[in-house]
Design brief:
The complex is a heterodimer of chains A (223) and B (347). With 223 residues, chain A is mainly α. Helix content of chain A is 80%, strand content 0%. In chain B, the strands form 5 sheets. Chain B has a 6-stranded mixed beta sheet, sandwiched between helices. Chain B is elongated, with a radius of gyration of 24 Å. Classes of the chains: A mainly alpha (223), B alpha+beta (347).
Chain lengths: 223, 347
């Protein structure tokens, strides 16, 4: 009998963190794209660091902030929120590590947006909110879609920061990637292989979906 | 109905300094690319913010740095036709036009006015097309429809023909000119093309390196540009340093000649302009010996370059432009130019 908990846990962590990263990434990209160059450069480094740092280092920093004996972690604990050794701590770890992928991809899309479209909307009397939701976002949907998928795939495969922050507890914090490592470590080669295949299947499906969406969009444009 | 603009803006080393009044009808901002024409339009539309100054439209203050008035683009009622037309790519032609009607709250009225505008701009059958499916001319009409339906008090056109193929351009010029005449309000058009400016506008404002040099009725500007930059921008090929000798004589040291002018020469003259069309072997006035240098053929015209006999070695040859059928059998010994055709330039 296979315990499907790691699959369920991985999917919910990746899903929730993707939603978080979707909104925060778009917001950060939108405001970063209109900052003065010097400020943008610094902000860019800070927001992109989690992408190039080893995930274990990210996990270390997360423990430094959210560890139960640290000020922030202790404060949150008073309200019953604990990111260490809980499944939703995995959301935090996955979100931090996958955020730069969303942020950078979307920022690229925003920067190549033809600002004349926004300006002409303004002179026609359209509200700035309408222009953002109905003109800017649709024009950048390729980049937003790509960023979301990359962030989701990264969150699904997150190992380093996750294992630092929430460890591996079967049936509680186990994810696919931590399970693969745990099974391999305990010489359960077949078990590890099984979860590798599951992960491979999910990633393939995700990428195929993206390709399909992109082709459909190109056809719609060509029509 | 009038537009008053007096703005300054610093952009790095570039200084924009424009003072301009435009009355009913089309006014062109003529200048080389990068001279601040488009920046001026953006300041008027409220997309860019000037450092100092005042912009007033039909008595409404759109911007006043001293009174801290800076209306949003949405409140200015200034239509802006972008160089690339800026149609929203994710919307159909009809949806684009409905965007211009966003101030109209009554749904039925909205639909009715959109349909009227579609008919007026001959866009029937294209309502449900996306912008990229339209030809350049159709895109221009759709973009204009979207702007006109929003009932702007002022229309700004940024190089309206630059995105079109040459053969379409002339047909659309006539079409747009008639449409603007019916629009009946102020239009400010940016262009670097003197023919376009001449075709389309009643008055021309000449800009150079962020400065507004002069505003004149179109024909007056071409007849008397007044400054070196304006002479070059209106297409004068022969602009050469000169100095005043007396009220009707100028000396052109580079060419080693003195010429008589019909217009009175004021103090402070620094150059003269001689349009390449006006030289003639038959002209009795200002005749001097010349020698042929080079020729260049155009589809219907011929450019012959020559030098005056006493012309300085390092100065550029003079251009003479004439219809091909008027080509002389042999290059004339002497060329003259009427004194009325010498442009006096003071700056």
């Amino acid at each position: 009998m296979i315990d499907w908990y790691p699959l369920f846990n991985s999917l919910r962590i990746a899903a929730v963190s993707s939603v978080l990263v979707f909104f925060t990434g778009i917001c950060a990209a939108y405001y970063a794209a209109r900052l003065p160059r010097a400020v943008k450069g610094i902000l860019d480094v800070i927001l992109t660091l989690p992408m190039v740092l080893p995930p274990t280092v990210c996990g270390y920093f997360l423990l430094l902030v959210f560890g139960v004996k640290r000020p922030v972690g202790a404060f949150l604990l008073r309200y019953g929120i604990k990111f260490v050794m809980t499944w939703y701590g995995g959301i935090l770890a996955a979100a931090v590590v996958s955020f730069p992928l969303m942020y950078r991809t979307v920022r690229g899309a925003f920067e190549s947006f033809d600002e004349n479209l926004a300006w002409s909307g303004q002179t026609l009397g359209l509200s700035d909110a309408y222009i953002f939701w109905r003109i800017r976002l649709p024009a950048c949907r390729q980049g937003i879609l790509a960023g979301t998928v990359l962030a989701f795939a990264r969150a699904l495969g997150e190992y380093g920061a996750t294992s630092m922050l929430i460890g591996y507890t079967p049936g509680r914090t186990a994810t696919i990637s931590t399970t693969v490592y745990q099974l391999w470590r305990t010489n359960d080669e077949r078990g590890a292989f099984f979860w590798v295949m599951v992960n491979l299947a999910i990633s393939t499906v995700v990428l195929l979906t993206v390709n399909m969406l992109e082709t459909r969009q190109k056809e719609a444009v060509a029509k | 109905m009038s537009l008053y603009v007096d703005i300054q803006k610093q952009l790095g080393a570039f200084q924009l300094n424009v003072r301009l009044t435009a009355e009913n009808g089309v006014t062109s901002l003529l200048g080389a690319s990068g001279c601040g024409k488009s920046m001026t339009l953006k300041c008027i539309a409220g997309i860019e913010r000037p450092d100092r100054g005042r912009i007033e439209l039909d008595g409404r203050v759109l911007f006043d740095s001293q009174a801290h008035i800076d209306l949003k683009p949405q409140q200015r009622r200034v239509g802006y036709l972008f160089q690339n037309y800026a149609l929203f790519p994710n919307m159909t032609v009809r949806q684009n036009i409905l965007c211009g009607l966003c101030r109209e709250k009554d749904r039925a009225a909205k639909e009715r006015r959109a349909s009227e505008m579609i008919a007026l701009m001959r866009l029937e059958g294209l309502e449900n097309h996306r912008p990229h499916q339209l030809s350049g001319g159709q895109q221009q009409r759709a973009a204009l429809a979207r702007i006109l339906v929003s009932d702007p008090q002022l229309l700004l056109l940024d190089e309206p023909f630059s995105a079109l193929d040459g053969h379409l351009r002339d047909a659309l010029k006539i079409e747009l000119r008639d449409l603007l005449a019916r629009f009946g309000r102020e239009v400010l058009m940016v262009t670097h093309d003197r023919t376009e400016a001449y075709n389309m506008s009643a008055a021309i404002a000449v800009m150079d390196e962020g400065r507004l040099l002069t505003v004149k009725p179109t024909k007056a500007l071409f007849a008397d540009p007044g400054s070196v930059r304006a002479a070059i921008l209106t297409g004068c090929k022969n602009v050469v340093p000169a100095r005043r000798v007396d009220a009707h004589t100028v000396e052109i040291p580079d060419w080693g000649v003195r010429m008589e002018t019909r217009q009175e020469v004021r103090e402070g003259l620094c150059a003269v302009g001689l349009r390449a069309h006006y030289f003639s072997p038959a002209a009795p006035q200002n005749r001097f010996p010349v020698c042929f240098v080079e020729e260049m053929e155009e589809p219907f015209e011929l450019i012959l370059q020559f030098r005056y006999q006493k012309q300085k070695k390092d100065s550029t040859p003079v251009w003479w432009r004439l219809p091909k059928e008027k080509r002389p059998a042999s290059f004339p010994q002497e060329l003259g130019i009427a004194g009325a055709n010498i442009l006096l330039l003071y700056e």
